[in-house]
Amino acid sequence: MITEPIFENTKIAFALKSDVELERAFFLFKMISIQPLVKIGTAATNLAIKANLPVEGLIRVTVFNHFCGGVNEEDCLPVIDKMYEKGVSSVLDYSVEGKENEAEFDSALTTVLRIMDFAKERKAMPIAVFKPTGFGRFKLFEKLGRGDDLSKEEREEWHRVESRFDTVCKKAKDNGLALLIDAEESWMQDAADELVTKMMQKYNTEKAVVFNTLQLYRHDRLDYLKKQHELARQNGYYLGYKIVRGAYMEKENERAEEFKYESPICKNKFATDTNFDQTAQYILDHLEDICLFAGTHNEDSTYLIMEQMKMKGIPNDDPRIWFGQLYGMSDHISFNLADKGYNVAKYVPFGPVKDVMPYLIRRAEENTSVAGQTGRELSLLSKEKKRRKLEE
Prior knowledge:
Elements: H1 10-13, H2 19-32, H3 35-50, H4 56-67, H5 73-85, E1 88-94, H6 102-120, E2 127-130, H7 138-146, H8 152-175, E3 178-181, H9 186-203, E4 210-215, H10 221-235, E5 239-244, H11 249-258, H12 269-285, E6 290-295, H13 299-311, E7 321-326, H14 331-339, E8 344-350, H15 353-369, H16 373-391
Parallel strand pairs: 1-8, 2-3, 3-4, 4-5, 5-6, 6-7, 7-8
């Protein structure tokens, strides 16, 4: 393990936060730590928005400003520029969810392309991202993944989905960006994986441009990676993978129980952690073929990757290895890594306050369910508050 515990340095972690912002962060995480309050608060917020009550202003100055960069990309610029001064890049994530029709998919495509042109002009934004169901219906991915025959209309619809993927992947290559494609529920993921592999074969001929995402709470993902690696070797292209633990655990287990099949989710947290670390290890062992974006808030896994890099003589700023965290969380990891010269990017969600609410609610719920996450944030914020008082 790395001998120097760099994540304890709160001065570096919270250098960008004013005293007021520090207090707001402490207050928010304190609220999030109270599980019944989160349930009541999210239900009340949903009701208030549906009833068109004037709550957006309150949401904006509290939870939205903490976890989101702004309502549009221009609005995010102060956040992007401030973080980049500290060596942390930004991945602008248009966090509007649950769209279902062609006009909305085309609109999402236009937004992603606009962000990529915006990113092209800025060193602080070397990476773009999108979600498969931002470009096509969930049910269509699901049907294709099951191997069901598509109707003529559905085949045409799928062709449009492929075309949107292709347009964005081409733009990433042309603009010199890396492109992360998020993973979603397992029962739609097979079709998405197949399509992303197609894009890798087409656009990753010189280096990894297109990155798929592996959710490593799934016990089958390391085997999947090894098969993809073999395929890439045979066909002469590079792989890019963002590795995460995963975001749909309860939904996955509930569905497996309902439809009486074995859950794809690891039996416990220890198995998930092991799976994540072994997958990171596999990629680092094959860095000549695979690039790594380690999306994690887990300190032990981050230290492990750092230690492996050190043992293998891989420079901290090797362009094939990135670390990523969500904006508003784990600043002690992001900014301390950047201070040591590692490649770090924050996922910066943005969008109209109302449209981003499902994302914000998920963040709040995840923070209450991840053991230790909120407590760790609170202890570090508290430590920094005390440090500043002593310096006064």
